[in-house]
Design brief:
416 residues; Aminopeptidase; Alpha-Beta Plaits; 15 strands; 35% helix; globular; hydrolase activity, acting on carbon-nitrogen (but not peptide) bonds, in linear amidines; hydrolase; zinc; metal-binding
């Protein structure tokens, strides 16, 4: 058996085959995936993951939020587990790797340890968190947020999708309500492996992103109330145009984000017009402003300014305006010891690497509230994610999984 840091690698072909097999469940229309949380496809993906874990000798636990915990026992009965995980749910037009790579790389770590005959002192738990994406039920990272005590379970169960279906009802419908109390589990450490979802690693030719921080986020849901009217026969001066108010707010958000450069972003990715007819001015527009920064002062300042300016824009047009925060987390600093462990693993394995700040939110952001946590990233082509064209190479996937393997072994400890 090779010592950690020398020749140990995951089985790159097996990891890649697992990714491709999971991608067959909930296929998209352009090569990616539509496996949104708590759909029938999500349930099918969970069953496949469970079958693979059974084959690797793992035992399953499921909590009342549907979070899946697959355990490989350690040799020390008193040692807290090392958790490795991410999510299997996708965006409506998602890629094959966002989240899924982290779950299946965790499984591959266990499979590789089995192949090598390595036992660890600490147990290892591969985790699939429910509803990380927040595409169907806002906010994102919902179940890990309940686990970390950020949200209550009642709040989570009451969240509704655009069709009015609740999280709790849909979790029950697909048959994945477990019996464990959410958050009762204790962690020794938490690792999450993910594609970058940005262009930096590929542009700089780096194999590994050593994630030191995750930028904070606010999702602000605006509801603008205008007056439905015929687009052709209503004079311009007599319109109460909620769509125009939305457009001006979007421009304001862009300006606020640009004025806080560097290290700040802002935009809108979801809009609902009502009645959404070609020749009817909208009576109601609902949209979500997404602002992010690793700087707490910038993040808070952008929110304050946007919430102050938007009502003024609407008032000038006679449009009603209300805003509700539907997602939030403060900037996260990941555990320095685990960050150093990841960095050393990359160096020992000969992979090029750089420190990086995650631009997206991840379950690791909430896990960091209850245990030492960090992340590993691999490049993705053109930085594209939340898109069916999302792509990585087998070599990129394997490199990050190799680093994950060594970081987990270092943290879990090899049994004597």
């Amino acid at each position: 058996m090779a010592a950690p840091g020398e020749n140990m690698r995951v089985n790159a072909d097996r990891l890649w085959d697992s990714l491709m097999d999971m991608a067959k469940i909930g296929p998209g229309i352009a090569g990616g995936n539509n496996r949104q949380t708590l759909t029938d496809s999500d349930a099918e993906g969970r069953r496949l993951f469970q079958a693979w874990c059974d084959g690797a000798g793992l035992t399953m636990g499921v909590d009342t939020m549907g979070n899946m915990f697959m355990t490989r026992e350690g040799t020390d009965p008193d040692a807290l587990p090392v958790y490795v995980g991410s999510h299997l749910d996708t965006q409506p037009t998602g890629g094959k790797y966002d989240g899924v790579l982290g779950v299946l790389a965790g499984l591959e770590v266990v499979r590789s340890l089995n192949d090598l005959g390595i036992r660890t002192k600490h147990p290892i738990v591969v985790t699939n968190w429910t509803n990380e994406e927040g595409a169907r039920f806002a906010p994102a990272m919902l179940a890990s947020g309940v686990f970390a005590g950020v949200h209550t379970q009642d709040y989570a169960y009451g969240r509704k999708d655009p069709e009015g279906k609740t999280f709790g009802e849909e979790l029950q419908r697909i048959g994945w309500v477990g019996d464990e109390e959410v958050g009762a589990r204790k962690m020794h450490a938490y690792f999450e492996y993910h594609i970058e979802q940005g262009p930096i690693l590929e542009a700089e030719g780096k194999d590994i992103g050593v994630v030191t921080h995750c930028q904070g986020l606010w999702w602000l849901e605006f509801t603008l109330t205008g007056r439905e009217a015929h687009t052709g026969s209503t004079p311009m001066t007599m319109r109460v145009n909620a769509g125009l108010a939305m457009a001006r707010i979007l421009e304001m958000v862009q300006m606020v984000a640009m004025e806080n450069q560097p290290g700040a972003v802002g935009g809108v990715g979801q809009v609902f017009f009502s009645p959404n007819s070609r020749n009817v001015l909208p009576g109601k527009v609902v949209f979500t402003v997404d602002i992010r920064s690793p700087d707490q002062a910038k993040l808070d300042g952008m929110r304050t300014r946007i919430e102050a300016e938007a009502p003024k824009i609407c008032e000038a047009l006679g449009v009603g305006c209300s805003v509700e925060p539907v997602g939030h987390f403060d900037p996260v600093t990941f555990d320095p010891t685990l960050v150093a462990t990841v960095r050393k693993a990359a160096e020992d394995l000969g992979y090029s690497h750089r420190d990086i700040i995650s631009g997206a939110g991840h379950d690791a952001c909430w896990a960091a509230r209850v245990a030492p946590a960090t992340m590993i990233m691999c490049p993705c082509v053109d930085g594209l994610s939340h898109n069916e064209a999302e792509d990585i190479s087998k070599e990129w996937a394997a490199a990050g999984a190799d680093v994950l393997l060594h970081a987990v072994i270092e943290t879990a400890g090899i049994a004597e």
